[in-house]
Amino acid sequence: MNVFKSLIIFLGLIVFHQEDVQSQSKNDETKHTIENYQNKLWYNEPATKWVEALPIGNGRLGAMVYGAVENEKIQLNEESVWAGPPIPEDRVGSHVYVEEARKLIFAGKYAEAQKLVQDSVMSKRISPRSNQTLGNLNLKFDLKGEVLNYNRQLDIDKAIAKTTFTSNGVNYTRTFFATAIDDVIAVLLTADKPNSISLDVSLDRPADYILNAKGKNKIQIWGQASHDGKHLGVKYEAQLLAIPKGGDMVSEDGNIKITKANSVVLLIASATDYNKKNPFKPLKHNLSKICSNTLKEASKKSIKNMMFDHISDYQELFRRVTIDLGTSPLKEKPTNERLEAVKQGSDDTGLMALYFQYGRYLLISSSREGSLPANLQGIWNHHMKAPWNSDYHTNINMQMNYWPAEVTNLSECHKPFFDFIETLIPSGQKTAKNVYNRKGFVVHHTTDVWHWTSPIGKPQYGMWPLGGAWCTQHFMEHYRFTGDTTFLKERAYPIMKESAEFLLDWLTIDPRSGKLVSGPSTSPENKFVSPEGENISSNLDMGNAMDQEIIWDNFTNILEAAKALKIEDAFTDKVTKALENLSMPKIGSDGRLMEWSQEFGEVNKGHRHLSHLYGLHPGRQFNQIDTPYYIDAINRSIEYRLSNGGGHTGWSRAWIINFYARLGAPQKAYENVKALLAKSTSTNLFDFHPPFQIDGNFGGTAGIAEMLIQSHINDKNGNPIIHLLPALPLEWATGSVTGLRSRGGFELDFEWKNNQLIAATILSKKGGVCKVLVGDKFIDINLPANGKQTLTNF
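== Glycoside hydrolase family 95 protein ==
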């Protein structure tokens, strides 16, 4: 009886599955009709380059879909496929030379100090040692007839890519998604006439792989990441399972050949031996068994149910926020034509709203709980030797990836960042001791999945021990936005304290001022003309503005957290005294904020980094309420950089949007949003440096949010001031948003018309007090947990 029941259930699943895909085929649009413009990227031709393909991802697995008709390629990624050791190592005992370099700098001998640091402190940069592509899924179709009604799209409301076209009277639909629920990449091929799908399916990789057929419906690919047999790294495996309905299927030489099927489902699973907690002790699990089990479980579902679960899981995050920046006359144009129109000078507020939501889509797709954090390329990298190894640059790029996480209601997506930074503590403690003979933990300008923290390469970028301190700011920001006191106590305060222990030891008295300064260090990644001669340049100084601002940020965060946790001890006393004697950035004779401790000449007047403005954003040291005397100097600094060609990389332009939003300069912020699209955005809306770097996407999304809501300033009682529409440009005259978050644990929906706020609803997640600032009017709010208040009279 049990066997009979099982057979009935099995047959029922087959029928149900076939009905699903046939229903899907019947309901698919055969000719593209425009709907939901705001959350779709769409095109009338296939991608011909990687930066035209459309990204999907589930946090761990990613893919780029080209949308080709006859020879489709889906480029695949798994987050931890990384080439390996040797990695940079600390130069033990370098503190002796650091102290000597300090004396030289104080004596004005900058060139000599830089040479000493280069020769005696910096570790060797070992490259390439890169994140790598997992490989390619190749689909070679047997098609007859002219292709008509072609369309490809990425629906970021559902996280589904789709290609549709007509050939020989048959309407074809190809659907692609990466599900976090079932942990696979899924491909669904359908047609509206039976026996119309014939194709060859294969997997390959540029190097370091073995291919094998496993039965007639499965392909395996496996190997170990390396660079030409060197830098042996992570072992990986991927498996593809083909599930056709109707037709025939055979396996030949590691390929699968399917003929005259009604529909086809392809599922891809992958696993590696990477150990997040200790990468030098690879996991011992059976990669083949993990992939097989994942595919076995996923294939138990109908594709309809798998897609439903995927959409439900994704939309729980994505649909928390909506945005409307006004109607665009270009809304019915394909995305590439809209982008080209912006390049030619047109305004497209709808494309800006799409870009904002696309940034949220990319963060959800590349950073989910339990995954590694988004790297320089998020999770999408087609290289074996990626630019900058696709690593984690902690002198802005990694942090910028997570600027939108809290304010755009994606706190969960922030967690991989916290997990990763905490894994750097043991290495950072060793580097602090080995290199500097200091306590606490330190991270320099870059790291990767092997958790090294040494200063590497050239002083211009590598001699900068403030990366870890900057990263700890994100822990405090997560607490401010969520009010999670458990997180503050168990995770934020301990890591901020670890960083502060190093900073307290690292600071030294500047004999010229008697104040505490950091150094020797660079102002990432700039250089100045040494007073030793016009033809001599240097990167290293004592008391660079960015160093001092990050340290101010760390110390004030420590004291704020300690107050919330009711901690008052010898350590907090030490931080308080150091903060009181900390050297502050200076304003130069030309009225600009000085980047270095002295008024040096600049080698690159339009440098892409605006490091000395950290205290404006993402810091909170400088603002129009508490430090108005710095605001003019910051404005002058930005204008000077831009007038000399600054903002020429995507992420730099995105940072400038955030600066101008904080400065309350809506039209300048808007001009830079437009410039980001016009000058640094590819056809698929990926940001480019160039080449592709995802940080500009995330920084741009954060910048648009910053134009609509700010909450970084507190009132005299320490409660957040929530400023609505602080930098609303004329072009966004009418619009609305829902679900944006503020510090203090508040969630806000608001709308405006004719550039004036007309309604706002405030929800308090934890209960709390705040002030809402509209124009120049303050409104006091006091709400219980889950309490809500609507404001309409301004």
